[in-house]
Amino acid sequence: MAKRIDGKAIAADVIGKVTAASAALKAEKDVVPGLAVVIVGDDPASHTYVAAKGRRAKECGFHSVQVTLPAETSQAELEQVVRELNDDPTIHGILVQLPLPAHLDEFPVIQLIRPEKDVDGLSIVNAGKLALGDTKTGLISCTPAGAMVLIRSIHGSDLSGLDAVVIGRSNLFGKPMGQLLLQANATVTMAHSRTADLPEICRRADILIAATGRAEMVKADWVKPGATVIDVGITRIPAPERGEGKTRLIGDVDYAAVEKVAGAITPVPGGVGPMTITMLMANTMIAACRDNGVTVPDF
Ligand SMILES: Nc1nc2c(c(=O)[nH]1)N[C@@H](CN(C=O)c1ccc(C(=O)N[C@@H](CCC(=O)O)C(=O)O)cc1)CN2
User: What Enzyme Commission number(s) apply to this enzyme (predicted)?
Assistant: First the structure.
C-alpha cells in the first residue's frame, strides 16, 4: 500500500516557518507583510478559497486585504484596482482570484501586477525567470511550488535519473510544474488532452502528476509500481450518503485503486490543496523580505 503524503501536516510545517519569518520581519524592520486578494463575482468556490486565504494571512501575522468586486465590474475598473494596489506600499503581494467572469480578460490584468508583487507567479517576468532556470529572484506559482515541496518530502531535492510525467499544460499549474521538475534534474514529459496513448506514457513515470481536470481519470494500470503520484484535481460531487445536499471532493486519480500500486500518493482532499494557500503565504513573505532587503528564508 502506498505511503499517503500528508499535505496538511507539511503545509502546517511551512506555515510555522512563514509565521516565524513574519514575526522576525516585524521585530527587525517594523514591517508587516501585506497581501491583497481581489475577487470578482459570486462564484461560491472562489469565495471559499479567498476567505481561507484571508484567514491564513492573519494567522501568519500579515496585513490582509480583500477587494470584493461585483460580477458586472468592467475591465478598466478591475485594472484600476490593480494599479492602486501596485502603488500601495503596505501591500507586498497581489493575487487576482481565478477564474474571472467571462466578460473579463485575465491576461492583461495579471500582466499589470508588478512582478515583485505577483505572488501567483503568473506574470511574464516571473514565468520567464522560471523558464530560464532562475528560481531565486522570481515568484513561483503556488500550486506547483507546493507540489514540489510534497515531491521533495519523498525524493529529496535532486530528481536525477527519475522520469516525471505532468498531465496538464495550464499556465497556473502544468507549465510551471514541468519547469520546476526540470530544474530539479528530472526527465520531464508534458502530456495533455491531445497526447496519444496517455496510459502508456504515464506508465513510464517515476513521478506522475495529474492535473487533467477530469475526475478519477488516472487508473491503477496507468501507474508504474512504486511511483509517486501527485493529484492536483478537485471535483466536487454529490454525496447523499453524508446527508441531503452534501458533497465531497475527489481528485483526478482513482485513489482507492492507485494506492495499491503506487509507492506514495497525495489524497484529495488533504494533499496538494492545502499547499496552494500555504505557498501563497510563503510567496508573500518572500516578497516582503525582498522589499525590505532582508535575507529570504527557505520554505
Ligand atoms: N489566482 C489564483 N486562482 C486560483 C488558484 C491560484 O493558485 N491562484 N488556484 C485554484 C483555487 N485555489 C486557490 O485559489 C485553491 C484550491 C484548493 C485549495 C484547498 O485547500 N483544497 C482542499 C479542499 C478544500 C475544500 O474543502 O474545498 C484540499 O484539496 O484538500 C485551496 C486553494 C483556482 N484559482
Answer: 1.5.1.5, 3.5.4.9
